[in-house]
Known about the structure:
With 391 residues, the chain is mainly alpha-helical. The chain has a domain at 81-221 and 281-343. The chain is 71% helix and 1% strand. The chain has a two-stranded antiparallel ribbon with strand order 1-2. Helix 7 (137-151) crosses helix 14 and helix 9 (178-195) crosses helix 10. The longest helix has 24 residues, at 254-277.
Amino acid sequence: MDLRLIKFHSRPMAGAAAGAVMAAILWRFVPEWILLALCALLIPISVFLFRRRSAFFLLPLVMFFVLVRTVLLPAALPNIPFLENLRANLGANADALFLDRAAAARGILLGDRSAMETGEIARYADTGLLHLFAVSGLHVMLLVGAFERLVRSEKRWLTVAATALFCLFFCAITGFSASVLRAAFMLLGIRLSRLRDRQVDRASVLCFAMACTVLVDPNSVFEVGFRLSFAAAGGMTLFAGAFRKPFRRLSASRIVTALTSAAAATVGMLPIHANSFGSLAWVSIPLSVLLIPTMPIVLLFGFPAVLLYGIAPHVAAILSYPAYGALLFLKSVTEVTHVPLLSLPSPHPFVIALYDIALLLCSPLNYANRKRPPWLGLGLLGASIILWFVI
């Protein structure tokens, strides 16, 4: 694949993502009518002055949509009694099926960590495995993949429609968190690209997911989960392939894929993680490779068990056994792993911005098919790391 196509086609989606985030931020500081008037003025200007593949082409239009959404609908997603009751019932099913592992099952399957004890949360945080309880891309990919095998049709648009409904259902029962919305919109973007027989551009899909997530919940921009989720996904989208190049002979190995993906995600979210938590569990990369294979067992057996418990308790109990065993293994590994955290100073927001800009300049988006190293990006990356420990 010619990587220059990624840079060219990612521009309008990048503009859309930037417009959505800008609208969500400015909405808190500038009167809505001023922003709406500005967007209404910029939309025809962008149509006449910029090409459809320009980054500025979609920026004002998406800003306008986000602002209209904040004016017409509540900024925070409303609590729907039906969904609250459904989550409560599914949580009760998990309690009945998993007993002493019910809190962990709630966290992984439903994104509900309210029942987890403080010590248990701290144990997972110290080993860098708390992300397993943040329902996100891995969960959506596994569950949707299994669902699509059940509803696969010769008419691909029917499969995509059924997948969209399942994603909506899963987002609803997990509380419409930013990480789940991001994963669902990315997956739907990939499916829609393939439906039209187009080559999937994951950078554009990531920007599409960001714009859609902000459109659904503008307040998510101010949540740590939003920033960490998109930073980790951005790292994997841009750098997982580059990290895998030194292991070309082993590129088909799932262990190499898991290691490079985890490393790329860590590089993408490192300054944001340090700014939010002040430390890094460096052991999380090898532990994630060890424990991520348990997640398909927990999800593909545990999720149907929780859904079926109300109508077929005996079938649900049988399905829950493998998931319960995987949860016990997860607990045992975290209990015997005692590795000190790597303390990191909290970087200045300017340093975070400089770090992200440097990564973009080093990425295939701006460094495609060139023979010389990206000296500008590497220089800014080095400067950002120095400033990280100076400012």
